[in-house]
Design brief:
The protein has 179 residues and is mainly alpha-helical. Helices cover 78% and strands 0% of the residues. The chain is built from 8 helices and no strands. Helix 3 packs parallel to helix 8, helix 5 packs across helix 8 and helix 7 packs antiparallel against helix 8. The protein is elongated, with a radius of gyration of 20 Å. The two termini are 32 Å apart. The N terminus is likely disordered.
Length: 179
Amino acid sequence: MKTKLLGARGTVGTSVISAILYYVFKWIAFMALYALCTLLIIPSLSLYSTRLGDMLYEGYEMIKPTVWLAAVVISFLASSFACAGFNYRFRKKIRKHFFAETFGMIGYKEGVRWFNENYGVLDRVLIAALSVIINLMALIKLPVLMPVIIPAILADAVGGYVSLRRGLTFLRIHSITCD
């Protein structure tokens, strides 16, 4: 018997895989954004003016802790949206069902409705639950991130919805161009 939460075809295993893939892509995006901030943006800003360089750096090639924390926070929150949707690209069953039932020729509202009817909101619920677990583990390792944890959990919940929307875009593009 299928519940409304699981949808007609939804299973916990595929939703867990989707949530884990979301976090793999989130951490890849976090590392890329953090490297971009600390290796390109901050040094470029410090080259722009010596006064700005004094505000960003302590001594020679040592970023101030507040600037470092700002780069971590911005990268951490932005990474919830940077690679959202790629987790659905790797779910072959969803692509197969999506193409078989819709031929990829439906709009966003119908796509979201189709996804909720067939797979439910379990993906988004598991992304939010995994977000709480991962952010609490990050809090244990870096207690300085305490003010960021609640916004990060909210950003991941919204990122789960954005992931669904971008995932439906990928499904539509794949359905139209392939098979």
